[in-house]
Design goal:
Oligomer: single chain
Shape: elongated
Number of strands: 0
Distance between the termini: 70 Å
Helix content: over 70%
Number of domains: 1
Number of helices: 3
């Protein structure tokens, strides 16, 4: 089986169908395809359940927001650290 976006969406839709019908088995929680990580399957399934046919766009948007947050947190931390470093440098220069 070739791993692509269509097969990932198909598997996630099958997972949602099993979940909604209540017939999901414990081994199916991790998925039948070993080429797709369970967390990714759950994430895609969550987007399908919430957004239906707009799930691919919603997933890409969510991924962009998560990536932005991941980049903003270290940048903010570095900014605070740099500001504190600059203040200490100014204090030692005037002492």
């Amino acid at each position: 089986m070739v791993a692509d976006g269509h097969s990932d969406l198909r598997e996630a839709r099958e997972f949602i169908g099993l979940f909604r019908s209540g017939t999901i088995q414990p081994s199916e929680w991790i998925g039948v395809n070993t080429g797709i990580m369970p967390f990714f399957l759950w994430l895609i399934a969550l987007h399908i359940a919430a957004f239906g046919d707009h799930a691919p766009f919603a997933y890409v948007t969510t991924q962009g927001l998560v990536d932005s947050a991941v980049l903003c947190v270290p940048t903010g931390a570095a900014s605070v650290a740099m500001r504190d470093w600059w203040r200490r440098r100014q204090l030692t220069a005037t002492a």
